[in-house]
Structures are given as structure tokens and as C-alpha cells.
Amino acid sequence: MSGLLDGRCLCGRLTYRCDGEPLVTVVCHCKDCQRQTGSAFSIFVVVPRATLHVGGDTLATYVTVGADSGEERQRQFCSKCGSPVVTLLAEQPELAVIKAGTLNDPSWLSPTLEVWCGSAQPWLAPIENSRRLARGLPA
Ligand SMILES: [Zn+2]
Ligand SMILES: [Zn+2]
Known about the structure:
By secondary structure, this protein is mainly β. It contains one helix and eleven strands, in the order E-E-E-H-E-E-E-E-E-E-E-E. One zinc ion binds near residues 30 and 42.
């Protein structure tokens, strides 16, 4: 699996490598992800936090609060080019969430879960065989 979860921001000053296994690939339709990405949704891969190694000197953090959980989300991005790269969830400190659009090779991605479908863009078709939740994951 080496190299499967390696990636970088748009300008390349932030890079990361992950020597763990992907736990789950998720599409999130929440309004915060839509705004942060400037797109219809964000797609991310959840990995064990201890296996993710971020390098570079432009890592910045913007903290949001989950609508359901009330818990903080550290949205980490590149302060040079603005790419969102990693999100850390306060209630799940053992996990890290990689914004999958920053992977060097996203070709293997296969989302199995869609969350916050209640705020999904209406023109988007459901992903085949995905589990769909109207809101976030139940605690
Ligand atoms: Zn950058
Ligand atoms: Zn989201």
C-alpha cells in the first residue's frame, strides 16, 4: 500500500505521506465542506492519525464546529495556495481525514458512505451502492 495515500496541496509546499491503510472513503455534502472546497461536496479518506505525516511550512488551521456533534474540526490547509488537505476531528483524535482530491493517485477511490445528504446539491445523483445519511455519522 506504500504511496497509495501520498499527496500534496496545489502549490506543492505542503506534502504528506501515509503509511497506514485507508479505513473508509466518504463523500460529505455539508455546507461547511461545500464552502471550504468551493465545490459541491468534499471527498475524503479516513486514516489512522499516527500513520499520517505532513511536511512543509505552510500548514494553517481554521476551526469549525460540527453542526450535530458540537465538536471542533481543525480544517488544515496550505496558507500559500489555500488547498484544504487534512481535517482533524476533536471527538476522534486517533483518526485523520485526508481531502482525497489532494492525493497523488485518486484513481482507486470508491466512496461507500455519503453524509449530510440533506444539503446535497439537487442535481447530484446518489453514488451507486453507497450508504446515505441525511446528516452526519451517529456518535
Ligand atoms: Zn500549497
Ligand atoms: Zn462536511
